[in-house]
Design a protein that fits this description.
Number of domains: 2
Strand order of the largest sheet: 3-2-1-4-11-6-12-5
Order of helices and strands: HEHEHEHEEHEEEEEHEEHHEH
Shape: globular
Helix content: 10-25%
Distance between the termini: 39 Å
Strand content: 15-25%
Number of strands: 13
Number of helices: 9
Radius of gyration: 18 Å
């Protein structure tokens, strides 16, 4: 059934938040909304919450499989507030995932293994969060696809990614096992991107616990949630393959007419497979084989 607000959902169907994994899909517009919902339903999330305006149309067979919540993504802060409200309402230990429309989660071996299997293994490694890289996708031909979105002709950058050690804001001291990652369209067209939006790391998968809060920069208030891996070995990471940056660059009046193509010498067609992302170093299987 649809809910008219996050408050109404928490009051009326809180049991959904007692068992995960739970996917939170925030619809900023209706671009590739159906494919986004379908992709995450197919990955085996126990529940998918679709937070979107009432005006957005979704096929009945998809709507029957999601929990639809009326929601307006009019500011980034509203999304973080909603996520924090759902964390506070959830049973401790519940796994969450969040993304926006036209974004697609890929993890190692996702073609044959469910997201539940992924997170069960990650939990056994005593990890409560998983780092994901937001990998920018873009259409090959912007004349044919002026919004820069095309699943059939999607490209990504195969090179141009780098990381810097994250430091404390004031003293400038290195933070243990925390990194800031850059690359993709946000790096190549940085003159059109605010500094605070240039990073491509996002802790998209995490477990609820008491007093956990998601911050405005996509990090959490508990430092261990923001780490790349545990102290002993490399852990699993995943990728969120996203048209979001390309969409924004072509819709923003300051950049729309300055960009005629996103193609460059390091563009390669996206194969919609986890093996390609692992081969490019855009996610890590860790000890999971």
């Amino acid at each position: 059934m649809p809910y008219n607000s996050v408050d109404a959902f928490v009051a009326g169907d809180r049991d959904v938040l007692t068992r995960g994994p739970v996917a939170l899909i925030f619809a900023e517009d209706d671009t590739e909304l159906v494919s986004t919902l379908s992709h995450h339903l197919d990955q085996g999330f126990r529940s998918v919450l679709a937070l979107m305006p009432d005006a957005f149309a979704v096929p009945s067979e998809i709507e029957a499989r999601v929990h639809r919540i009326n929601f307006e993504c009019s500011s980034p802060g509203m999304v973080f507030d909603a996520i924090n409200q759902l964390i506070a309402a959830a049973a401790p230990g519940t796994w969450f995932y969040y993304c926006y429309n036209a974004e697609y989660l890929f993890y190692p071996f996702c073609e044959s293994r469910s997201v539940g299997e992924l997170l069960a293994f990650h939990t056994e490694e005593r990890r409560d969060a998983m780092l994901t890289y937001v990998v920018d996708l873009y259409a090959d031909d912007l004349n044919a696809h002026p919004d820069a979105v095309s699943r059939d002709e999607a490209y990504l950058d195969q090179h141009g990614y780098y990381a810097l050690t994250r430091q404390t804001p004031n003293a400038g001291k290195p933070l243990d096992r925390q990194m800031d990652f850059f690359g993709g369209l946000r790096w190549r067209f940085e003159e059109h991107v605010d500094w605070g939006s240039r990073k491509i790391d996002r802790v998209s998968l995490f477990r609820a616990q008491k007093d956990l809060r998601l911050l405005q920069d996509h990090t959490f208030n508990i430092a261990e949630y923001n780490t790349v891996s545990c102290p002993w070995h490399h852990n699993l990471t995943a990728s969120v393959c996203s048209f979001r940056a390309a969409k924004a660059l072509k819709r923003n009046p300051g950049s729309a007419f300055a960009i005629n193509s996103f193609q460059w010498r390091n563009s390669t067609r996206f194969q919609w497979q986890s093996r390609q992302l692992m081969d490019l170093g855009l996610m890590e299987p860790g000890q999971w084989f």
